[in-house]
TrEMBL record:
Organism: Desertifilum tharense IPPAS B-1220
Protein name: Histidine kinase/HSP90-like ATPase domain-containing protein
Upper classification of the organism: Bacteria, Bacillati, Cyanobacteriota, Cyanophyceae, Desertifilales
Domain of life: Bacteria
Domain Histidine kinase/HSP90-like ATPase: 12-138
UniProt keyword Repeat present: no
Alphabetized UniProt keyword annotations: Kinase, Serine/threonine-protein kinase, Transferase
GO molecular function: protein serine/threonine kinase activity
Length: 143
């Protein structure tokens, strides 16, 4: 798409890689993007990355790759996170309005709800190469 810039990073499935991912993301913090928008996206990225490692890759080697892609447009940004896990129905989970059953369930899924509130579009789909792609889209006003 005209006016877009795309950047990619691949890291190991290890929570210690989160600092590397966030530092990588920060290098693209550009003045046309409002600071609040940037921080919301950075928070959503951290949560998405953590979920990929803790949940999608919980039974996989730490050598399993997690790939992150950032696409910057003049009025929006897209973050994609690919994992190699079994996948799940994010739309069904987010639509389920069942109350948590116990304290453990209170912790489970709060990150998804937070990501949903921080971004304008959230999806998680299986790709043709048998990976999963978490897509987060955030719009911001033109500067």
């Amino acid at each position: 798409m005209p006016g877009s810039q795309k950047f990619r990073l691949q890291v190991r499935s290890d929570l210690r890689a989160l600092d590397q991912v966030l530092s990588w993301f920060d290098q693209f913090d550009e003045s046309p993007i409002p600071n609040t928008t940037w921080m919301e996206c950075k928070t959503a990225l951290a949560e998405g990355m953590t979920n990929a490692i803790r949940h999608a890759h919980k039974d996989r080697s730490s050598d399993s790759p997690v790939e992150i892609e950032l696409t910057l447009f003049p009025e929006l940004l897209e973050i994609r996170i690919w994992d190699c896990g079994p996948g799940f129905d994010i739309d069904g989970w987010l639509a389920d309005e069942q109350p948590p059953l116990d304290n453990e369930d209170l912790e489970h899924g709060r990150g998804l709800l937070m990501m949903q509130k921080l971004v304008d579009r959230l999806s998680y789909d299986r790709t043709a190469d048998r990976r999963n792609c978490l897509l987060m889209v955030k719009h911001f006003p033109p500067q």
